[in-house]
Amino acid sequence: MTAVTTLFERIETTMPDFKARPQQVQMSEFIAQAMLKPPQKRIAVVEAPTGVGKTLAYLTGTIQTALLQKKMLVISTATVNLQQQLIQKDLPRFSAALEEPIRFVQVKGRRRYVCPSKLSQTATTPEQQSLNIHVDEKYQQVLHLAQAKQLMSEWEQESWDGDRDSRRDKIDAELWQQISTDSEGCAGKSCSFYMRCPYYKLRREMTAAQVIVANHDLILSDADLGGGLVLPNPEEILFVFDEAHNLPRKALDHAAKALNFIQLYQTTETADSVLKKIPSALAYRQHDFGYMLSELRRDLPAVISHLQQIETILHSDGVVQDLLEKHISEPRIFWNSPLVNALLIPCQGVLQRANSIYKHYSVLAKWIKEGLEKTQLSNKVGEALLPQVGTVQNIFGYLIDFMALFLEPDQEDRPPNVRWLSVESFSKQQTLVIHAGPMTAAYFLDRSLWSRSYGVVLTSATLRGMGLFHRFRLDCGLHRFDEQHFLAVPSPFNYQKQAILHIPDMRFQPNEQQQQWQQEVVTKLTDIIDTKEATLVLFTSKLVMEAVYRQCPAAITAITMVQGDSLSPKNMVHRHIRQIESGKGSIIFGLDRFAEGVDLPGHLCTHVIITKLPFPVFTRPIEQAKQEWIIRKGGQPFTALSLPAVSVKLIQACGRLLRKETDSGRITILDKRLLTKGYGKKLLAHLPDYQLEQS
Description:
alpha/beta, seven-stranded parallel sheet
């Protein structure tokens, strides 16, 4: 008997309603064996369909290794719902089955918690009386001050724990920016609020915990900064990435950087403002920073000058004019193009100055923290100054990272970085933004996580496209791991008995005869929807969804909720459940948000209707660049990118029907391409083995 089966027996004893499934034990054993491999080989990738019980499987497969090797088990998810389920339900039940209970804690980024020092400063700052302040800004200022005072009062009376997510009311994003902080702006142990600080309370809980529940964004942010800032170093962590199919996309978002002109001008102003306060605040170190001040007084204006040169070059380009006039969106700019060649010298100038500014402000931050520790600096002055110094340090550090991507020459043998432009709103102004990012997150993930972590488990209900792990493997940087690291667990569902897949006879195709197909969808929905049932209708276009809704008969629209109307998706689900529980019918018209992650078991969803095959639309610059790279290498983007993506999305959408082994119902797909196109038949072949019904 293995350690895994012994642990499952204990779980069955403590949970009378639980019986380990063969697929669950298979998954758990596979993970446990993978964690016994040599360093940099401890990776297990598992596709576990709905109903397998993957949470208990990966907990059982990892916990003994984590405890024995004294490593932190970090479980990362993509959604708040799954984090809450882990903390409130799964981990307490799992812990109760162990010989010794484990300690676990949910961890979020520092910015999710209030900074009591900054909140105190904001709540006690007198209103600005300047005549230059616009009446709207004045009103906003009054609102912010009133809310800050209210928040301070609630936090001091312990009726609020300082966690942004625990509030029912909404805190304005601009105010939250003022009353939260990042690591550079934090005084740490020297802060007068240190012992009561929500974030440091969490850090103290973390040191005593054996399991941490986090989200992908936090893990990736920490990895992007080198690891070990929020969490322990990756070498001390056994990672489990649940909902891992989201990881490549999120990793790309973290790996890409941007140059925002207005933000940089404002940060340079902040840096200059700080510079004026330093001589008096750090008077006791006066002999140390004479050269530093002279360099900063040279570098800060130089940054402004270089940024203005870059803006002038951009505004003289026809593509940028088209962007500003909204004729195009997110145009790409290319290495060795006249525009990029013209930008190289001022960008190198910005990089040189940014390195100097970052270095000097890092030293200033260190001195302020030391001054607070040694009481050479008053808490009031130090805690007010440090966040400003930290902001400068943070933004210029980010600018250095951007320039590293933007100025890296293209190479023939590896995917090039992608560069593009956009117009965005920042501080209530429109600004031009330059973006640069890698085409794939593979190198970032391998370098920062797979090559460093003690062990890694990647799991989701859908990781394979067209029956293969190939696309996920490439996007995640797992190409050096052979098939021994990958497992597709069979489903415990009896698809033939539990679900009917109905593909009605459709006259029109959505991609060739859009209007006729749309009208035909209205007719079909009228025929196939039972208004007494729980029905989920999935669309790929908001415009089509709204047009179809307007044309449906009153019997359907009367009980239908449409995504994007007055209710949030979460509240739509709540109302849908109330309707069904009260014995009435309910219909949801939804987009992507409802095709993945929505859990409506049993009678809460008995009919899923997919109006159109969910082909991804590759319009973003990085996606376009990836297609071009595949063509350059002799591949076909449709086969390499589109088909695997639509396969995953289609399986996820169909997966909304069966959530438990006792569920049953039907799936209807209103897209004849599944039967008439060669690729459609391949997509159909890789769906679960539903009972197929054609008409």
